[in-house]
Amino acid sequence: MRRMTLLGCCLLLAAAGRSSAVAAARELAPAEKEKARAQLRRLADRNFKAREQATAELLRLGPAARSILEEGVKDSDAEVRRRCGLLLRLASRTDTEIALEDFMIKKDSTGLLKLPSWGRFSKSVGADDAAKRLFVDMYCNEGTMLAQLDRSPEDFATKFQEHVQTIQRNLYTPWGVANSISHPKVLALVFMASDSRLADNLQVFYALNSLFYQPSVQQGFKDNAGSRKLLVAFLESRTNPSTVSQAFYIARQLQLKEALPLALKTVKTKTTQSYTRGTAVLFIGQVGGKEHIKDLEPLLEDTTQMGAIRTGTATINAQLRDVALAAMIQMSGQNLFDYPFPFLQQYRNLRGNFQLPPYYYGFQDDAGRTAAMKKWRESQPKTEPTKEPKKKESAK
């Protein structure tokens, strides 16, 4: 199975970098060419050991032997043609192919660690064996585009956008049935989209977003810690305000606890758009624990407007303090439906992990808001004031 994966990986990478690898090969001197042709003739020797020795000598010459091997694949002897075909493929490998094969077959990661993308990848995911396997899986699924990123990053953004949009267009059949897409492929796309040249590209972001809802992709992120780290790096790299808030919806959908530091930073940055701060607060409420309640407590005084909705004849106005209260209630283990949030009271039968926007957690008036705040404070354990130890009277 591993060997088949390797073969598929090599075929993908061959188209990406073979021409540049061949162009870089040195020319054999005339005397070396004659020796190589002599070894070529030995490939037809009746002695197996002689054939193996000749094969090893030609392999040692690497890409420089390509022209000799191309002669060999046209030889009248079937054994010469077979061995030259294998040697030609090996001689035509790129540095990336060699590095991946060495890791997958020999468990040698020396070449892998020299690949241009490895530095950025390992910074996000780590450098253990699991991270290396994840890196190889990415190359086996998106080797052509990853090689493009390594080779000419200045031209990469436009080509990558076209590539991702093509994948998005082909995601569903004309009959509306979803085509399967592998988790390693999506992960490779996420890694490439984390490049700084794509940080504010809306088309790429929304095209990738459409891939995150496939069950197999979601399960892949839940099962693999390295994948989650890479996804967080992608979310952190977003610079367009309209995508930052959407990033927290993705994090909520995938229960991405690794994004908590990003959410806490977003909440505390007052220059961030209010709606984005609200979505970050709700994310903290969904995946955070009791230890994070103290991080949101200062927001209970924040009257920043989140927006308004009408439900029936009532108008609900939400402020950041209302959203913070809802998040703190969730983290404390209490039931949101036990609090007088008008929208939730109207739909008490709602069940499951529903993803409501921030402006749904508001109140009709200050009386309802005050009642909810009072109920919250009464639910919290009373802390006894610290008593100072009595001072001993000095002996007279």
Q: How does this structure look, described?
A:
With 396 residues, the protein is mostly helical. Among the domains are: 77 residues, Alpha Horseshoe (Leucine-rich Repeat Variant); 120 residues, no CATH class. 60% of the residues lie in helices and 3% in strands. The protein has 20 helices and 2 strands. A two-stranded antiparallel sheet has the order 1-2. Helix 1 packs antiparallel against helix 6, helix 3 runs parallel beside helix 5 and helix 8 packs across helix 10. It is elongated.
Give average pLDDT, whole number. Answer: 85
Rg computed from alpha carbons, rounded to a whole number of angstroms? 30 Å
> Quick one: overall form?
elongated
Largest sheet: 2 strands, antiparallel
For the terminal residues, how far apart are their CA atoms?
90 Å
Unreliable stretches (pLDDT < 50, length at least 5) are 1-7, 11-23
Strand order of the largest sheet: 1-2
Helix content: 55-70%
Question: Concise description?
Answer:
By secondary structure, the chain is mainly α. Among the domains are: 17-93, Leucine-rich Repeat Variant; 95-214, no CATH class.
Topology diagram in text:
Blueprint: H1 2-23, H2 30-42, H3 48-61, H4 66-72, H5 78-91, H6 95-106, H7 118-125, H8 129-151, H9 156-169, H10 183-193, H11 202-209, H12 215-223, H13 225-236, H14 241-253, H15 260-268, H16 274-287, H17 293-296, E1 305-311, E2 314-319, H18 320-332, H19 342-346, H20 366-379
Helix pairs in contact: 1-6, 1-8, 2-3, 3-5, 4-5, 6-8, 8-10, 9-11, 10-13, 12-13, 14-16, 15-16, 16-18
Task: Name its key features.
Leucine-rich Repeat Variant; two-stranded antiparallel sheet; 60% helix; 3% strand; elongated; mainly alpha; 2 strands
